[in-house]
Design a protein that fits this description.
The complex is a heterodimer of chains A (about 280) and B (about 240).
Chain A lengths: L3 H5 L3 H8 L1 H6 L6 H8 L3 H14 L6 H27 L4 H25 L29 H22 L7 H25 L23 H4 L6 E2 L2 E2 L8 H6 L7 H8 L7
Antiparallel strand pairs in A: 1-2
Chain B lengths: L1 H7 L3 H23 L17 E3 L8 E6 L3 H24 L7 H25 L19 H22 L6 H25 L23 H8 L6 E5 L2
Parallel strand pairs in B: 2-3
Antiparallel strand pairs in B: 1-2
Helix pairs in contact in B: 3-4, 3-5, 4-6, 5-6, 5-7
Classes of the chains: A mainly alpha (about 280), B mainly alpha (about 240).
Chain lengths: ~280, ~240
C-alpha cells in the first residue's frame, strides 16, 4: 500500500500522463527494472508507482524552476544522508540512540534515492562535504563531529531544523505541480519528525527548554547555529498578531509555527559544509 | 477502550483499502465510474463557501457542514475543523491528567495543548465571518484516566493531522495560505514524533515504518479519508466538495 503514496497525490493531468501508454512511448520512456518487475509480479500499484517515477524521470515537461527546487532539495539530502552514513561508520553513536539515528539515516538515503529518481538525468552530482563547517579545511567550528557524539547530535539537529525550513520555503515554488508539491510536503513532515526527536534526545528527553521537540522563539543552545533559528520568533501570521487573539503565552505561540527560509538563507547556512559551493 | 480505539484507528490499512480499489479501477480505465460523487445536501447553496446548514433529520440537532475545496476558505476551514478537534482533546487531557502520565509526559501534552489552541484560535480569526461554527467533539471512546488511551488517541490525531495537511496543500491557491499551512504541519509532525516516542521511547517509532514509506515520505490523505477517520470524534457531519 505504501506504493500508492505517490499516485495518491498525482493530479488528474499527470495521472493521465502516467496511465497513457502512448504518452510514455512518445516520450521514449524506458521502463525501469522496478517497473518491469512490478508488472511481472502483477502488482499493479507497485508497477504504477514505479512507472510514475519513470515518467517524472524523463524530465518530460518538468519546468526548470521545479528542477532547480528539486536539485536544491537533493543537495540538502545528500548533505544529510552522507552525514548519517559517516556518523554510523564512525561508531560514536551510543547503543541507546542507535535505533533513532538508523531510522533517520534510512530516511535521508531514501530521500536522496527518491529525488534522484524524479530528477533523472537532471540531477546534480553529490558535492564534497566538510562536516566541521570549515569549507573544506576540515578544521571548522564543528571539528570533532565524527569523534564526539554531542557535536554530532548538535549538527544533526541543525541540519534537521534547517531542512524543515528549507522545504517550507520552497513549497510555493512547487504549486504548479501538485504531485511534486505533495511529495515535498511529505518529506518536509519527515524532517520535522527527525528534528523533534534529535532535539529531545539532546536534552536526554527531559523536555526542558530549549531541548524540547519544538522551537521556542529563536533559541538555540548550539553556538554557530543562530542563522538556523533566526526568524523563528515571528508572531505575525497572515497579518494577524497571534498573541493578541489567543490566551496562550508568547513562547508557546512561537512554538506553534515553524518559519520558512529562502533558498539564499539556507545556502548561507550550509555553505561552510559544502566544499566549493 | 482498546476495542473502541481499534475500530476508530485510521491506520493506513483502513484508510487505503477503498482507495486501493479506486486506484485500481482508475488504472483499469474505469476511473470516472469509480469516483464517488459527493452527496449534495438538498437546498444547500452551492456558492456558500462554508455551506453550513442545519439538518432536518429525526434527531433535530444534527448539523451538516460542507467544505468547498475549490476555495482556500474551504480548505482552511477543514484545517480549522481538525484543529478544533485536537484542541478540544488536549484541553480535556490537561484538565485532569491520567494518573499514570509522568511529569515529563505532562510537559509534552501541555505544550501540545497550547499549540493546538493557538492553531484553533488563529484559524478562527483568520477565517472571520467565513469560519465554520464551533464543533461538538465526541470523545466517548477515549479513557482520559488512562495514559495508554490518551497517548494512543493523541498519536492517531497527530499522524492524521500531518497526513491531512500533506494531502490538502495541493488544493490551496494562495502561496501565503500554503506557507502558513506549512508552518503548522511541521509542528504537527513534531507533535506526532514526540507522542510516538512517549509510546515507544528511544526507538525508530517516532517516524515509524507504519507511517513513513520506502521513499521516506510521510502520509498524505485526501480530505474524504481524513474526515471519515475523524467522524467518530465529531458530532457534526462534515463533507467535502470540489475535490
Amino acid at each position: 500500500m505504501d506504493n500508492l503514496s505517490l499516485l495518491d497525490s498525482v493530479n488528474p493531468e499527470i495521472e493521465d500522463r502516467i496511465l497513457s501508454r502512448r504518452d510514455v512511448l512518445t516520450k521514449g520512456a524506458k521502463a525501469s527494472s522496478a517497473t518491469i518487475a512490478g508488472f511481472a509480479l502483477a502488482s499493479v500499484p507497485l508497477a504504477l508507482a514505479a512507472l510514475a517515477k519513470d515518467v517524472f524521470a524523463q524530465g518530460g515537461g518538468l519546468p526548470q524552476n521545479i528542477i532547480d527546487v528539486l536539485n536544491f532539495a537533493l543537495t540538502l539530502e545528500y548533505l544529510e544522508a552522507e552525514f548519517y552514513n559517516r556518523g554510523a561508520d564512525a561508531g560514536i553513536i551510543p547503543a541507546a540512540d542507535t535505533a533513532i539515528f538508523e531510522q533517520i539515516r534510512k530516511h535521508e538515503n531514501e530521500h536522496v534515492a527518491f529525488l534522484l529518481s524524479v530528477l533523472g538525468h537532471a540531477a546534480v552530482p553529490k558535492p564534497t562535504f566538510d562536516y566541521t563547517a570549515g569549507g573544506g579545511s576540515d578544521n571548522g567550528p564543528f571539528k570533532g563531529v565524527f569523534f564526539h557524539f554531542e557535536i554530532f547530535a548538535a549538527v544533526s539537529q541543525a541540519f534537521e531544523d534547517t531542512g524543515v525550513r528549507a522545504y517550507k520555503g520552497q513549497a510555493p515554488n512547487l504549486m504548479s505541480n501538485k504531485a511534486i508539491l505533495t511529495a515535498a510536503l511529505q518529506i518536509h513532515a519527515v524532517e520535522a519528525r527527525h528534528a523533534c526527536e534529535v532535539r529531545r534526545l539532546r536534552g536526554n528527553f527531559s523536555e526542558t527548554s530549549p531541548n524540547e521537540g519544538w522551537i521556542t522563539r529563536n533559541l538555540t543552545d548550539i553556538p554557530g547555529t543562530e542563522a538556523t533559528y533566526a526568524g523563528e520568533e515571528n508572531t505575525v501570521q497572515l497579518g494577524i498578531n497571534v498573541p493578541s487573539i489567543t490566551s496562550v503565552a508568547l513562547d508557546e505561540v512561537t512554538e506553534s509555527f515553524d518559519e520558512p527560509l529562502t533558498k539564499e538563507q539556507v545556502l548561507a547556512i550550509v555553505r561552510p559544509f559544502i566544499v566549493g559551493l | 477502550m482498546k476495542n473502541g480505539l481499534t475500530s476508530l484507528d485510521p491506520g493506513p490499512e483502513g484508510l487505503f483499502r477503498g482507495r486501493t480499489r479506486r486506484d485500481f479501477l482508475r488504472a483499469a480505465g474505469l476511473g470516472g465510474a469509480a469516483l464517488c460523487v459527493p452527496a449534495l445536501i438538498e437546498g444547500c447553496s452551492q456558492d456558500s463557501v462554508t455551506g453550513v446548514r442545519g439538518g432536518q433529520g429525526n434527531q433535530g440537532t444534527a448539523t451538516t457542514i460542507v467544505l468547498d475545496f475549490s476555495t482556500d476558505v474551504g480548505v482552511l476551514n477543514y484545517a480549522y475543523a481538525l484543529e478544533q478537534l485536537e484542541a478540544a482533546f488536549y484541553v480535556m487531557v490537561a484538565a485532569s491528567f491520567a494518573g499514570d502520565l509522568i511529569a515529563r509526559e505532562r510537559i509534552v501534552l501541555t505544550d501540545v495543548r497550547d499549540h493546538e489552541v493557538v492553531h484553533r484560535d488563529f484559524f478562527k480569526t483568520a477565517l472571520g465571518a467565513s469560519a465554520i461554527p464551533a464543533l461538538t467533539p465526541n470523545f466517548s471512546s477515549v479513557n482520559f484516566a488512562s495514559r495508554t488511551s490518551v497517548l494512543t488517541t493523541a498519536r492517531v490525531f497527530e499522524d492524521l493531522g500531518v497526513a491531512a495537511y500533506n494531502g490538502s496543500g495541493k488544493y490551496l491557491k494562495s502561496a501565503a495560505n500554503l506557507t502558513v499551512a506549512g508552518k503548522i504541519v511541521s509542528v504537527e509532525a513534531r507533535h506526532a514524533a514526540a507522542i510516538r516516542d512517549l509510546l515507544q521511547p528511544r526507538t525508530g517509532y517516532f517516524a515509524g515504518d507504519d507511517v513513513i514509506d520506502q521513499n521516506g515520505l510521510d502520509r498524505a490523505f485526501e480530505p474524504g479519508a481524513v474526515l471519515q477517520a475523524a467522524s467518530p470524534f465529531i458530532q457534526e457531519t462534515i463533507t467535502v466538495t470540489g475535490v
